[in-house]
Amino acid sequence: MDLFFWEIARASGLAAYAALCISVLSGLAPRTQALSFLANNRAVRALHDWTPWIVIPAAAVHIVALLLDATARIGILDVFVPFLTSYGQLAIGLGTISLDLLVVVLVTTWLRRRFSNNAWQWWHRVSYLGFGTMFLHSMLSGTDLTSPVIAALSWAAGIGIAYYALERLGKALNPARIRA
Amino acid sequence: MKANSPTLPPIPARTGPDRPKKRSGPVPAWGLKLGGLLTTFGVFVSSLGYANAHLYVTTAPLQPATVAAVATTGTTAATSASTATAVPSTATTTTTTLTSAVRTTTQPAVTVTKKS
């Protein structure tokens, strides 16, 4: 039974990574035209607003499976407080931080109307940090990333998102935009 | 050689409401959502298959210390019993040392060795 939870934890971890990639990419796409070959901005925005429905279940299954896996020895406290585990403190702690940041982004998004648009945008930018920590978590702790194919796909997704994030940053810092 | 027709002036870029819009892909929002769902689910299923086929990855970056829990096999040889005892190492490393011991038994033999 323990191996079952271990397999589920590994698979759901990769699924959560894929879901978060879709979420971040669809958030970047309206300004960078990253998905313009697929759909217009309205549809991409609808996808981005919907992605919590795939990110949350995948992350939840990953965490619950690790909690139930006796070998992993992850406690409830380890889920929310980083760097407490008896092994792999950095690798697992980065995953904890990414979960905390994901919760922050989701809660502030649901409470968006209570924030000014500017304040909410700053809170939402935390998602870049969250994705970065999740990427490092997957690279440092991912058992299946020892497979060249899975590693290549994961790196490609990470590099693609980093590229569009930098393009987005460049457009945000563009003087023409400030003038407008 | 002289050109037969005069050089045309460059076509000015159209601006304003007339400007041709950049074409976007035809996939509707529900199609993108379905694609996202299927992608995530596909990654989950294929990863599950991979994890099932590669249960023990010796090169995995994280190697949690395993608790020494060796199940008793219950098999008894005719004249001897072989047991494996897992001894957790006392050092900070996570390795487990296995030692074996062969002992005689008083139980009746279940196999017969042919004598010449």
Question: Can you tell me about this structure?
Answer:
The complex is a heterodimer of chains A (180) and B (116). With 180 residues, chain A is mostly helical. Chain A has one domain. Chain A is 77% helix and 0% strand. Chain A contains 9 helices and no strands. In chain A, helix 1 packs antiparallel against helix 2 and helix 1 packs antiparallel against helix 3. Chain A starts with a helix and ends with a helix. Chain B is an alpha+beta fold and 116 residues long. Chain B has a domain of 33 residues. Chain B is built from 1 helix and 2 strands, in the order αββ. In chain B, strands 1-2 form a two-stranded antiparallel sheet. Chain B is rod-shaped and about 115 Å long. Chain B starts with 28 loop residues before the first helix and ends in a 12-residue tail after the last strand. About 22% of the residues of chain B have low confidence. At the A-B interface, helix 1 and helix 2 of A face helix 1 of B.
Strand order of the largest sheet of chain B: 1-2
Oligomer: heterodimer
Distance between the termini of chain A: 60 Å
Helix fraction of chain A?
over 70%
Helix/strand/pairing category of chain A: mainly alpha
Q: Tell me which protein chains meet in the greatest interface and how many residues each side has.
A: A-B, 49 and 36 residues
H/E topology pattern of chain A: HHHHHHHHH
Count of runs of 4 or more consecutive helical residues of chain B: 1
Number of domains of chain A: 1
Radius of gyration of chain A: 17 Å
Which descriptor suits the 3D outline of chain A? globular
N- to C-terminal separation of chain B?
Answer: 112 Å
**Which term fits the overall shape of chain B?**
rod-shaped
The total of beta strands of chain A comes to 0
Mean pLDDT of chain B: 69
Order of H and E elements of chain B: HEE
Q: Specify the biggest β-sheet of chain B.
A: 2 strands, antiparallel
Percent helix range of chain B: 10-25%
Q: What would the average pLDDT of chain A be, to the nearest integer?
A: 93
Strand-pairing-aware structural class of chain B: alpha+beta
The proportion of residues in beta strands of chain B is 15-25%
